[in-house]
Structures are given as structure tokens and as C-alpha cells.
Design a protein that fits this description.
five-stranded mixed β-barrel, 9 helices, alpha+beta, OB fold (Dihydrolipoamide Acetyltransferase, E2P), 270 residues, elongated, 43% helix, 20% strand
């Protein structure tokens, strides 16, 4: 999701619940500190984007620390803000590594991070909740603080449990030829030869994307976009590679995006 969506949702949830909305605001955008992972310092700590910071591990560790060494109100505010970020990103096709350091990603697969419909939905929902704050406050008062916390925690936990059971991203092995006959978006594991010299694009967050094509023995090809950090080996022209990612025809050319792994099988020329 976009940063404005994360920030607004985190602020809204903590504000209408009578918690520390400043903590809610900042904790809702904190997981995306890993967008700086192409810088050496951040890469050493966080690894790639949508890695460690997008898992339950930092959520539980920091919440425990704040509740026990700061105060419970700050800890609960952090928990709700940070959880909202993980849940929103779980709606995107890229998914999140819920149980990091395990490598499986989890996603409800509803859209991309920049999908305007998905972002606008949560932005307008937040605005609606803010405009109806008094009604919500009355409902919370009638329900009582203990039952309110139980409902909020239950919703968050049930979302994570549903994601864990039904949202696992698993890559099916296939060929370039079969993929080009397919019009559906699917997570795949595929082998091919790098048949175009890799190009590199650096974003405003100092993140680098590696862009290249892979071909099969029939010279049928796909474009590959992958986020590159300092732990990745760059591919070379004519390398034989195995790629795990999502196949899509949503763009100008058929391509593999949201790449999770690139294995260089043979580092030689054809």
C-alpha cells in the first residue's frame, strides 16, 4: 500500500479507539523503513524490502518491550498501528513474510501496492470512521473497554490466522511456453536463459530494480523485474537461471514480477 494509506489507517484506528494516535501514525509507516535496504547500513539490519520488518517478529518483540518498559497504552497503540500495516500489505500480490525467517510469503492477492481502487477504499473507509467518531465512541462506551479490546484483538488475530491458513504463496513449476498460453496471474518457478543484457533502474528510495529477459530453447521470452539488494548476485547475459515470481500479462509485455528468488544454475555462455 501507499504510505498515505498506511499512515491514515494507523492514525484513524488508534484515534477512534482513544489511544495514542501519534504512535499509531508512526508505527503504521515504520515497517517501510526497509525501503532503504539498498543502503549498506539498512541492508545489514533489515535485508530486502518486505522482509524482516513485514513479519510478526518485530511486531511482537517491540509490543512486548513497550508494554513492559514504557506503558501499556503506548504498546497497544504500537501494536494496532504496526498490525494495520502488515494486514494492508497482505492484501497486495507481493504479500508479506508473516513467519520470518521462514521464506514463505502470504497474500490475500487483491491488488498491487499502487492499485488506486485498493488504496482509495481504505482511505475513504478511514475518513468515514473519522467522520463518525462520536457514534463509534458511544458504541465503545456501551461495549466497555475490556470487550472493545477483545473485539479489536480478535479481528487482528483472526486476520493473521486466515492469512496463515489460506494465503500462502507457493510457486508451481512450469515453462515459458506454457506461461505464454496462460492469461491468468500465477506464482511460478521457471527456468530460462538470460537473453538480454540486464538493465538497472534506481528509485528515489535508492532501491534498484534489475530488468532482463529470459528465453527458452524455442526463443520464446519473458521480461523479469526484480528488486535488487546488496545480498543478491546480479545476473549476466546467457546465464541459465531459475526464477520464482508472479507471471502477469497486465503490462505491455508478458513478465515475471514480485520476484522472490533468482538462482543462477549455470554461469556461462550458450
Amino acid at each position: 500500500m501507499q504510505e498515505i494509506t498506511h499512515a491514515l489507517v494507523g492514525l484513524t484506528l488508534t484515534y477512534i479507539l482513544g489511544l495514542d494516535f501519534i504512535v499509531g501514525f508512526f508505527s503504521a509507516i515504520l515497517p517501510d523503513i526497509d525501503v532503504l535496504s539498498n543502503l549498506s547500513f539498512f541492508n545489514t539490519i533489515f535485508g530486502t524490502h518486505r522482509g524482516f520488518t513485514h513479519s510478526l517478529l518485530p511486531l511482537l518483540i517491540i509490543t512486548f518491550f513497550l508494554c513492559n518498559f514504557k506503558n501499556k497504552r503506548v504498546g497497544v497503540s504500537f501494536f494496532i498501528g504496526y498490525s494495520s500495516h502488515l494486514i494492508l500489505d497482505s492484501f497486495t500480490k507481493m504479500g508479506i513474510p508473516l513467519f520470518f525467517p521462514l521464506k514463505t510469503y502470504y497474500s490475500f492477492n487483491l491488488g498491487t501496492s499502487s492499485d488506486p481502487n485498493l488504496n482509495y477504499f481504505f482511505i475513504f473507509l478511514s475518513i468515514f470512521l473519522l467522520l463518525n467518531k462520536k457514534t463509534i465512541e458511544k458504541a465503545i462506551t456501551d461495549l466497555g473497554p475490556t470487550k472493545t479490546r477483545f473485539v479489536v484483538y480478535s479481528i487482528i488475530c483472526l486476520t493473521f490466522i486466515t492469512l496463515a491458513f489460506y494465503g500462502g504463496i507457493y510457486y508451481q513449476e512450469t515453462t515459458i511456453d506454457n506461461l505464454l498460453k496462460n492469461n491468468e496471474e500465477v506464482y511460478v518457478s521457471i527456468e530460462g536463459i538470460v537473453c538480454s543484457a540486464p538493465k538497472y533502474h534506481t528509485t528515489k528510495y535508492v532501491n534498484t530494480f534489475e530488468i532482463f529477459s529470459i528465453c527458452d530453447e524455442k526463443n520464446k521470452s519473458l521480461i523479469v523485474w526484480r528488486f535488487l539488494n546488496k545480498n543478491n548476485n546480479k545476473v549476466n547475459l546467457y546465464d541459465k537461471v531459475k526464477i520464482e515470481g508472479m507471471f502477469t500479462k497486465a503490462y505491455k509485455w508478458p513478465e515475471i514480477t514480485y520476484v522472490k528468488n533468482v538462482e543462477i544454475i549455470e554461469n556461462n555462455r550458450c
